[in-house]
Amino acid sequence: MSRRTLAPFGRRRAPVAAAGDVGAYRLLRCADPGGPVPRPGQFYMLATAERWGAGEDERPLLPRAFSFLRALDGELEFLLEDIGPGTHRLAAVAPGEDLWITGPLGEGFAAPAEGTRPLLTGGGIGIVPLAGWQDQLRAAGHDAPALLGFRDAAHAAGATLLSDVQVTTDDGSVGETGLVTGLLASALDRDHAVTVYACGPPPMLEAVRALCAERGVPAQLALEAGMACGYGACFGCVVPTRAGYVRVCVDGPVLDAARLETALVAGAGHP
Questions:
Q1: Alpha-carbon torsion (46, 48, 54, 58), positive or negative
Q2: CB count, 10 Å around CB of 30?
Q3: What mean pLDDT value characterizes the chain?
Q4: For residue 5, how far is the Cα from the chain centroid?
Q5: CATH number, span 12-105
Q6: pTM of the entire structure?
Q7: Which of 63, 111, 200, 209 is most open to solvent, judged by the fewest CB atoms within 10 Å of its CB?
Q8: What 8-state DSSP symbol labels residue 102?
Q9: For residue 206, what pLDDT is reported?
Q10: Is the pLDDT of residue 271 over 90?
Q11: H-helix or E-strand spanning residue 72
Q12: Which residues is 195 bridged to in the sheet?
């Protein structure tokens, strides 16, 4: 099966149907009845149709790249955290407002390697692309447990968006205390007949890559990178591989870990 659904040309308006909080995160659901069904792991470029850095004394803003959470019945769900001017404006949108969306873009996840079972590993907002992938894997008859790490209880509320989860928090307020890579190391030591699917901050992904490389475990990493365009024109999201540099937005964001020299991306941001 292809890892990519091709996007229609240009951006399109998507009315916001619902908006609400999930702990420290904001969940947006928008209508996209004419859009193609994306592959889990792909992403969209989002902007608001109104008040997107266009007012007096406002600097212009580029669209922001976001993995989609789920795509169901002609609607798309996105999860975001209010951390800057663009995400602040997106977090403030209400039903009845419109988003500009471009996508789906990039390459998504591929089926587990033969003879392995899927194991999902997410950190913080990096849980987003894993939700729809877990749904698809389970629909295909796979068990797809998830190891999820968060900063604190407010952020750990995001774990409710997936099923069959183990949770760690930095402060121990939910689940185990520590990093999600500790859970992953223990899981791989018990059973390494898995394909790991991971998304999270670059240091976490680099730790996942190293853990899997040490044990000969296949892994697919959804990389986070700051993207100015989303379709390969600006070369702002390049990452080194064993065969040279690639652009995260068109050659990823999901890359096989074995291709990478490192999962650390300069200028990385949220998916």
A1: negative
A2: 25
A3: 92
A4: 16
A5: 2.40.30.10
A6: 0.94
A7: 111
A8: E
A9: 95
A10: no
A11: strand 70-72
A12: 118
Res. 125: pLDDT tops 60: yes
CB 156 within 8 A of CB 175: yes
Backbone angles phi, psi at 103, to 5 degrees: 150, -175
Which residues 6+ apart lie within 8 Å of 250 measured at CB? 105, 106, 107, 231, 232
Predicted confidence band at 58 (pLDDT cuts at 50, 70, 90)?
low
DSSP character at residue 18: E
Q: What fold does the segment set 117-259 form as a domain?
A: Rossmann fold (3.40.50)
CB contact at 8 A, 31 and 97: no
The CA distances from residue 162 to 76, 135, 221, 239, 249, in Å, are 16, 9, 18, 29, 25
Q: Is the peptide bond before 145 cis (omega within 30 degrees of 0)?
A: no
Are β-strands 12-22 and 98-105 bridged in parallel, bridged antiparallel, or unpaired?
antiparallel
- Alpha-carbon distance of 237 to 251, in angstroms, equals 10
The whole-number pLDDT of residue 238 equals 87
Beta-bridged to residue 247, according to DSSP, are 238
Domain ranges in the chain are: 12-105, 117-259
**Single-letter amino acid, residue 162:** L
